[in-house]
Amino acid sequence: MSTTDSDPLARERAHLGASRAALRAMREDVEALDIRDVTANWVNAAVLSRQIEERVKALADLSHTPLFFGRLDYLHTTQEGQRFYIGRRHVHDAHGDPMVIDWRAPVSQPFYRASRKDPQDVGLRRRFGYTGGELTAYEDEHLTDPEEADTTSRLLQAEIERPRVGPMRDIVATIQPEQDEIVRSGLSGSVCVQGGPGTGKTAVGLHRVAYLLYAHRERLARTGTLVIGPNRSFLRYIEQVLPALGELEVRQSTVDDLVGTHVEVRGADEAAAAVVKGDARMAEVLRRAVRSHVTPPVEPVVVVRGSRRWRVPAYEVEEIVRELLARDMRYGAAREALPRRIAHAVLVRMEEAGEAPDDRVQDAVARNAAVKAAVKAVWPPVDPAKLVLRLLSDAEFLAEHARGVLTEEEQKAILWTRPPRGVRSAKWSPADAVLVDEAADLVERTHSLGHVVLDEAQDLSPMQYRAVGRRCSTGSVTVLGDLAQGTTPWATRSWTEALGHLGKPDAVVEELTAGFRVPREVIAYASRLLPHIAPGLAEVRSVRENPGSLEVRAVGEAERDPAVVTACREFLGREGSVGLIAADARVPELARALDGAGLGFLAPGEETSARARLTLVPASLAKGLEYDYVVLDEPAAVVGGEPDERTGLRRLYVALTRAVSGLTLVHAAPLPAHLTA
Q1: By the 8 A CB rule, do 662 and 571 touch?
Q2: Which of 41, 343, 359, 600 is 20 to 30 A (C-alpha) from 623?
């Protein structure tokens, strides 16, 4: 008898080795493809070469990523006697028989949802444990055995609590039933996920993209997918999740990058101005301003063709213009339709005179100089950036189109005190760029994608929601966020309101309340702020017991910086990443303290490694990031760094909930009263 016959772990290791060899063979088969005999021209060859290159990348065997993490042994029905290994991608042998099943396949679903109450025909569910890429353990659940106790999986818990070094990783091995329901929901419906810290909402959104690409690959290949994050540091942190799942074609962006294609953003607004510019009422102001360029005709249109003159009176042109305005078309589309409508009126007169004009005649009339001149006078072109520039520079123009929409105080708040000379010299703010994007959509419809994931959505203004909504007007969206973590003065008050601005009022709102990342002691401490920052929001129920994970150190002001350095040193003595989070204004001083102590540190978004595990994080950039251990400097300064107390307390809530294993607060100033009550 061989060793593998008597040793289950050895058998599983043998299957892992065979699966890796099969994946390597699949990759080599693709690399060996000769496309010379199947491509008609260089264009086809280039397209096919790129597809082959992407396929080769998707078949990469990542050494740090286990090829499979689970096994299902079915009992009856169509899977009678069948055994399936569940992994990140499909792997088959030389005969085409599956060795690893993609986690997104229907047959894999019971790995996440089967239970003793509903075994879903699964006799055994096996989870695998890995160390450094090597299979080192396994754990079995016999779902139909009444004698077996119902216990928490040690391997599952260990995987959830594994130290975080490097970018965010996938959670495909640890997806919970309530998360799986969201991940596998259909493409046609939009979903909004409200989730507190550590509930895995970001990972759920990314895995939902991966699932949709698996289930609707051809459709989404045509229409496109997009992940929108709050900042580029966050995008760098999550950028490896989808490639690890074999998905390489998903674009990532921030809202600022999306709308920043029209103008160069070089300025910033005061909070009061940004709130008004981000208000949904600005959409009506812009609509009025765009349509104000249409003026009633004062002269008839006279078209000369040969010896004949065809006259369309001004009142008839005005009727055409009025009809186009009533249809509420895009400004540019209506402008393109106007010459053909005038030409049609000319053709009617030709037919009444006994002529038989065809489409070529209508096209010629539409291009006639007299018609072009009339269109230019009645419906002139509009440059979106110049329009917004005029609104923000010309008090009379703004007042005319904001009458009954914005108050005089609000109009005054958004007017530039020193108007720029032109579009290029203007110091556009992020909120201005959103206004230009709205105006551009009023002129010409924005291209829509098949699916968009919008993360940290609670921080968007209504106008930013509209900008994102334009990118998925004919597709669907996954909205991810936490109302308690809204840290902008314009943060949304409810998902119903946000989804309305997004253009997806019928989206299903799901709430994740089980926390898998933040220790129970830490989340309970942070949750003291919830009644003040998000009344009525459910507190996260952490499944992680980690006694001693929270420590609060009060020091004198002179000892504060050395105490912060000491706390960082202590955490660096343990395994995992360390984040030092501080109010933005405190970051330069702490950087000098770390340098003076000989502690090297990274900036947010820079990848941690075994040698570089400490990151200095301004509180404004902490959202969405996580570290095994966090040192939080001066909580009162974090609150005081924001324009109002509620926003400051929300910023503090974010900072308090970035720790996966341990949190130490260091403070010289009194803690915010809401934490000590």
Answers
A1: yes
A2: 600
Q: Is 223 within the bounds of a domain?
A: no
Burial group, residue 421, by CB count within 10 angstroms (0-12, 13-18, 19+): exposed
Tokens 């939902």 belong to residue: 208
What are the angstrom distances between the C-alpha of 311 and each of 258, 318, 371, 374? 47, 14, 11, 12
Structural domains counted in the chain: 3
Phi and psi based region of residue 624 (left: phi greater than 0; alpha: psi -120 to 50; beta: remaining): left
- Residues 515, 488 contacting (CB under 8 angstroms): no
CA 77 from centroid of its chain's CA atoms: 40
Q: For residue 16, what is the enclosing H or E element?
A: helix 8-31
C-alpha to C-alpha distance for 32 and 8, rounded to whole angstroms: 36
Q: Rounded CA gap, 383 and 443, in Å?
A: 8
Q: Which ranges constitute the DSSP H helices of 149-296?
A: 154-161, 177-183, 201-215, 217-223, 232-238, 241-244, 255-259, 271-277, 281-291
CA distance 439 to 283: 8
| Domain interval for residue 126 | 3-151
Final residue of a domain: which of 151, 184, 213? 151
| Residue ending a domain, choose from 104, 126, 151 | 151
Find the range with the poorest average confidence among 237-251, 267-281, 412-426.
237-251
CA 292, 296, 298, 302 torsion-angle sign: positive
Per-residue pLDDT tens over the stretch 317-333: 999 999 999 998 999 99
Lowest-confidence region among 144-153, 156-165, 280-289:
156-165
- Residue 96 is labelled as binding a ligand: no
More confident site: 244 or 201: 201
Q: Is 197 annotated as a binding residue?
A: yes
In eight-state DSSP terms, residue 481 is E
End-to-end CA distance of the chain: 68
In a domain, 200, yes or no: no
pLDDT at 5: 56
Task: Judge whether 621 lies within some domain.
Answer: yes
199 is in an annotated binding site: yes
**The overall pTM is greater than 0.90:** no
What does the DSSP assignment read for 603-657?
-TTSPP-SS--EEEEEGGG-TT--EEEEEEE-HHHHHHTSSSHHHHHHHHHHHHT
Q: 225: annotated binding-site residue? A: no
User: Is 151 marked within a binding site?
Assistant: no
Q: CA dihedral defined by 644, 645, 650, 656, rounded to 10 degrees?
A: 130
Residue 480 burial by CB count (10 A; 0-12/13-18/19+): exposed, middle or buried? buried
Q: Is 198 annotated as a binding residue?
A: yes
Cβ contacts of 593 within 8 Å, gap of 6 or more? 561, 562, 564, 565
Yes or no: say if 349 and 316 are a contact pair by the CB < 8 Å rule: no
Contacts of 92 by beta carbon, 8 Å cutoff, 6+ apart: 22, 26, 98, 99
Q: How far apart are CA 265 and CA 245, in angstroms?
A: 35
The radius of gyration of the chain from alpha carbons, rounded to an integer in Å, stands at 30
Residue 667 lies in a domain: yes
Give the model's pLDDT for residue 39: 58
- CA–CA separation, 484 and 527 (whole Å): 10
